[in-house]
Specification:
The protein has two domains: 141 residues, Aspartate Aminotransferase, domain 1, CATH 3.90.1150; 240 residues, 3-Layer(aba) Sandwich (Aspartate Aminotransferase, domain 2). The protein is 41% helix and 15% strand. It has 14 helices and 13 strands. The strands form three sheets. The protein has a seven-stranded mixed beta sheet, sandwiched between helices. The chain starts with a strand and ends with a helix. The structure holds pyridoxal-5'-phosphate. Pyridoxal-5'-phosphate binds next to helix 3.
């Protein structure tokens, strides 16, 4: 995205951290906020349009991932959906001190939900990953115990973009008659997802990662799977998640997801082309770097580790040029310690500190990719040729 501001243009390539709200979604939110203020749970006719909007939003979202409308439960975002999935299964089986299996490269929303359950006395098993960040289904199979109740492996990684072999993982989990949850926050709206074909039991998503508003998301819960409510109160969301629904945000989320899914393959092709332009530019100029995450990655998602460099200063040097990238995941950007994901991938020591994440979005252009490449070459050549 190149945005004209009052003084200069910016190139925003941190779309894994968040995306810009879609214009139509914003207009819809504004209209609903202003003109449809009634509580959707009220019985009078003023509430009818709001009930309809909620129903249609659920239908739209369900269609995007091949789910049924009643399998979509609105939440406040990815973090809440992840907390809910893990904690509800554990708490429902608490007397058995359940074991949770997850992977070493999950987002903190999963890792810290597991840690909270560990503090209460449950056991947590973290699956290793290969050098690309992928979990091996055989490793999972070996670690499933009788007391394992839930396996949670993300669909696509937020730092390196690796897409996990979800179908094989689900098959392994279901053979052992356990529950499979996936944190699909980075994947929904970016790669086609069919929950029925994949056989997923629960899936977390967040609107602000697919050009929807912040503070809203959903949890997909397969029909027939009983989960405890995470927020107790009124009867909203089929009595599974209490609290008056944020109808404008939910409607905007549904519209943004529907729009992204309509062009999902064309957008993916475009973003992959931008990534290639940037990689070609770095390679043809002899820059010494590794690309983390292997081939099966989210489109336009680049985690690059530059030899003998400091990722944080690279990020600041690009910031001075109005190019916005991240040093790792947004949740880690306050900390200088090396990310658990890069460590799990065993990125070589002389590269690991020089990591930045560039995630193209649908509003970027080929020119953005060329501009970033040229700036990186200018910044990196003097320090790498010392
Ligand atoms: N899971 C993953 C993989 C993420 O990338 C993020 C956000 O960065 C989250 C969960 C948390 O989502 P939210 O910001 O909606 O709470």
């Amino acid at each position: 995205m190149t945005v004209a501001s009052s003084s200069s243009k910016i190139i925003y390539v941190d779309n894994a951290a968040t995306t810009r709200l879609d214009d139509d979604a914003l207009a819809l939110m504004f209209d609903l906020q202003r003109n449809f203020f009634a509580n959707p749970s009220s019985a009078y006719k003023l509430s009818r349009p709001l009930k309809k909007i909620l129903r249609e939003s659920r239908e739209k979202i369900a269609a995007c991932i091949n789910a049924e409308p009643q399998e979509i439960i609105f939440t406040s975002g990815g973090t809440e959906s992840d907390n809910w999935a893990i904690k509800s299964v554990v708490l429902a089986n608490f007397s058995e001190r359940p074991n949770i299996i997850t992977s070493a490269v999950e987002h903190k929303a999963i890792l810290n939900s597991c840690a909270a359950m560990e503090n209460l006395g449950c056991a947590v098993t973290k699956l290793p990953v290969d050098k690309f960040g992928a979990v091996n289904p055989n490793d999972l199979q070996k670690r499933i115990l009788p007391q394992t109740k839930i396996i949670s492996v993300m669909l696509a990684n937020n730092e390196v973009g690796t897409i996990q072999p979800i179908k094989s993982l689900v098959e392994t989990v279901h053979t052992a008659e356990k529950i499979f949850h996936t944190d699909a926050v980075q994947a929904v709206g970016h790669i086609p997802i069919d929950v029925k074909t994949l056989g997923i039991d629960m899936l977390s998503a967040s609107a602000h990662k697919f050009n929807g508003p912040k503070g809203v998301g959903f949890l997909y819960v397969r029909d027939g799977l009983k989960i405890l409510p995470y927020i107790d109160g009124g009867a909203q969301e089929f009595s599974r998640r209490a609290g008056t629904e944020n109808v404008p945000a939910i409607a905007a989320m549904a519209l943004a997801l529907e729009k992204n899914c309509q062009d999902i393959n064309q957008t993916a092709e475009k973003l992959s082309a931008y990534a290639k332009i940037l990689l070609d530019c770095l390679q043809s100029n002899g820059v010494d770097f590794t690309l983390n995450g292997g081939k099966n990655r989210l489109p336009g998602h680049l985690s690059l580790s530059f030899k003998d460099c400091d990722g944080e200063s690279l990020m600041h040097r690009l910031d001075l040029k109005n190019i916005f990238v991240s040093t790792g995941s947004a949740c880690n950007s306050q900390q200088t310690k090396i990310s658990h994901v890069l460590q799990a991938l065993k990125v070589p020591q002389d590269y690991i500190r020089g990591t930045i994440r560039i995630t193209f979005g649908k509003e970027n252009s080929c020119d953005d990719a060329k501009t970033i490449g040229n700036h990186l070459v200018k910044i990196l050549q003097p320090c790498q040729n010392q």
